[in-house]
Amino acid sequence: MKSRRDFLGGMAALGALGVPGCGSIVIGPESKLPDRDDVIIRNAYVMTMDPKLGDLPDADVHVKNGAIVAVGRGVLAVTAQVIDGRDMIVLPGFVETHWHMWNTLLRSMSGDKREYGYFPTTLALGKAYLPSDMYQGTRLATAEALNSGITFVHDWCHNIRSPQFAQENLRALRESGIRGRFSYGAAQGHPADQTIDLADMERLHRSWAANSGGGLLSLGLAWRGVSTGATGSVSAAAYKQDFDAARRLGIPISVHANNRKGSDAIALLAREKFLGKDVQVIHATWVSPEEIRALAENGCPVSLSPYTEMRIGFGFPPTGDFLAAGIPVGLSVDTTALSGNADMFAIMKAIQNIENARALNEFKLPARRVLELATIEGARSMGVADRVGSLVPGKRADLIMLDARDVNLAVWSDPAHLLVEAAQPSNIDTVMVDGRILKREGKLTTIDTAEVAREAQAALAALRKRAGWW
Ligand SMILES: [Zn+2]
Q: What pTM does this model have?
């Protein structure tokens, strides 16, 4: 271990000196991440998303050692570096709740014919992935997430073809400094009668401290559940063993369910006692009242990804039905192979518009409620609301700052409506995760986006060639 550490340290030093030709060399997990400074944002419009603190016009947010130490007016912080928050909106970073980050390399590749649809495309290309493609896809996803104000991701990793695939995927997450959950899944085309690589998942769990990026990342299970994949329906023996392994390790579970008309997967999961607070259910666009009751009674959170659900024909997310039942709801990207981009503003707007359209009611889902789903309630649905999701002293400093002077904002009306209806990722001036400034004045501070794009493009070109894909 020592020699590797020395090597990495040496390479980081070379990188800092600007030695050419280091582009392809592995740099240590956190070597490029900035320090956690003593910083105060002054005179911003602060939306704490905390019911007691509410919105604070002309207020300050003081951050030190990665934590929020004070929120309010006229905060005393003599030694802190000052960030001017005038004409800016500050709010918690967005919490994303289900994203197959590895296939961001396949952005917008779901075609217009059945054989080129999302599932055959990700299967064919996923099988031809190398571990380095996991790194490239996930790194591109983290760059887009941070640029768009997403500070927490749930990386639903379902192309782990060997332990190295998981390692390379995790390396991209760690290097980015983003917070999130990494859910360990099967490979594309994995035999339906076999468990996932439980030994590797358990090994990762045992050594998690070394994988967690200093505690920013946690481990979960990307469970196939009772789904039917390319190799048929997952056998009961396999999905039970996978589930039991996660419960034994005490890690949370996540499963896709009820995305097609007539599906009763949730009813089956309820009957066989597979539901619980630790089991997140994804999509559930076709869900019976009994199934909603089962989710609510078991405390299951739900993740909704309106763009992929609409684009692939799963239907409309029944957001209002889940909220009425008291089910924690989080919003998600799912996959850019279908959604194109990772834009939480657009996702919020879609969630509101779909719900109001379904209800034939202009007032059904208020903007403020949608904003909660993208922040504090999303955090609650992922079990991290004690740490992030609102701007409260004592929580970790995951926050974003938008420039309200941009032309698509510019007039000061209702800030929650502005964020859900008008704002775009390009308005994000500053992004902070765990007190580290990862975007400032509209630019990512640690990621060379030109390099990320160039390498991702090269990886995709080589992948297409290997897979013989058009
Ligand atoms: Zn998904």
A: 0.93
